[in-house]
Amino acid sequence: MKTLADPANRLSHGLAAIRTRFQVPEGFSRAVLAAAEAAAARAPTGHIDRTDRHFVTLDPASATDLDQAFAVEAAGPDMLLHYAIADVAWFVDDGDPIDLEAWRRGTTFYLPDGKAGLYPPVLSEGAASLLPTGPRPAVIFTVRVTPDGAVHLDGAERAVIRSAAKLAYDSVRDTDLPPGFADLTARLQHAESRRGAARVDPPEQEVALRDDGSFALVFRPRLASEERNAALSLAANMAIADVLRAHQTGLFRVMAEPDDRAVARLRQTAVAFGLDWLPVATLAQFEATLDPGDPKQAAFMLAIRRAGQGASYQPFQPGIVPWHAAVAASYAHATAPLRRLADRYVIRATLAVANGQPVPEIVTAAFDKLPVVMARADAIGGQIDRAVIDLAEAVMLQGREGEVFAAIVTDADDRGARIQLCDLPIVTRLALRGAEPGDAVRVRLVSADPDRQRITFEPVV
């Protein structure tokens, strides 16, 4: 990691400006906080006691808003994933102040110096979070995983659980995890490969807060523990989607395949990068072979992400199969209700249909309204993320105007070229005509303006 030199504290000032620019909420109103305090004191009723099961959580070390805990059980040749999800709906009533504020926000917004939560901390980091500090109400989805990795929802129930351990991505050991975890995740990941799923994430450009209070601008590849944990969430969300589709209800996460023109451009990009993409291999098959630790392959993975049409939410529609191209299956969001508004309603619908009950009308009505709310929240979150990166890049480069940097072109279109600096984790655009992906270029820094979150380069001829 490279620590940012920020003696004037421009990053903190810039983050405050970004919060103002995007109207990131600061705290909660007194009415919301009072309602949350009252809700946090509720004792679970109608919840089955499952505190005898060995549940654990697996998250970033610093996380306190824990949506998911899991336990694993053998069932003959099958494996059972008992996936406990924070029972947010137990604490939040339809139309109460907490609910209304959550509809205004849509999601939790994350910035390097802190987050703006979807729910007040007394719930999201306390009574509703699946922390190992005592019993918690949860919704348990029991997902049956066959030897070939196929998934089926065996049941859903409200239960009280007790997490035995808060495990962290960067320090977890296999011996910390429930017996059977490795077998379970291997089945799920093999099934992804057979489906042709392209759920391969490139390294993320991010601003990280270091232990000494300084910031670093980094490319952070996903850890193997994150991928294995994501496989559990994916399995539950696929099984839930199948159940909801069968009952002609639900809200689904959908994403179209890159079109033929985009795939043709990606094939040219692969040639420019010197990557061996066989003509008979699909994009999904090729992406699954890529190594995010290799700079050119990581750049190509970023190009694939940009070539897609983006994901969105879609309520159930008769005769239409909701499809997520990266997952290569129908898929719902149900496993992060502390951070995403939509998940609370998908969970409520799944609880109903899994137990032979009608889906509440207020949930069905929400499915029609949520796509717009979630699209707005996702867009704001993406804009915040990009603004934070732009700010960090400007702070890192301020004072180096006139310096020449080596770079590689990762993408090019009629607007110019997108370049990756070779020695710094910085990606930017350049007005460069005739550039091709894979071209090595030299660029001069013209300006670095933290106040405007903008850096400008010019090509060195």
UniProtKB/TrEMBL annotation:
Provide the GO biological process annotations: mRNA catabolic process
Q: What is this protein called?
A: RNB domain-containing ribonuclease
- Highest taxon of the lineage: Bacteria
* Coiled-coil portions: none
Q: Which Pfam families match?
A: RNase_II_C_S1, RNB
Q: Which SUPFAM superfamilies match?
A: Nucleic acid-binding proteins
Which organism does this record belong to? Sphingomonas psychrotolerans
Q: Which SMART domains match?
A: RNB
Q: Which InterPro entries match?
A: NA-bd_OB-fold (IPR012340), RNase_II/R (IPR001900), RNase_II_C_S1 (IPR040596), RNR_Ribonuclease (IPR050180)
Annotated ranges, domain RNB: 47-356
Q: Name one GO molecular function term.
A: RNA binding
